[in-house]
Amino acid sequence: METTLFNKNGKPVAYIADDGETIYLWDGRAVGYLFKDQVFGWNGKQLGWFANGTIFDIYGLRTGFIKSKSPIPTDIEPGKLVKQVKGAKSVRQGALAKPVMCYGYSGRSLEEILEEGSAL
User: How many separate domains does the chain show?
Assistant: First the structure.
């Protein structure tokens, strides 16, 4: 089952595919994937962390949530566009040191962070 990712304003912006790994934006582009508790871009860059239903940026600040972990009401999910061909993942960069996760919000939106993972 696909899992929707909502930004800090409760807007659905991405989802984790049925494979439990690939992250797609709502427009159908594969921009990232989960590896253990880390979030990597399709381009191999570490974008953040995924822990307990929350997406954290590389500094440990919250930027997105699954529905059940959202601290605010979430918007209705629109229909998804057809998934585009993923292409090959780039080699993963070495994992960053894991920061202390905190309840503060990132200054960057979930959309910005995930867009950074688009293939080069």
Answer: 1
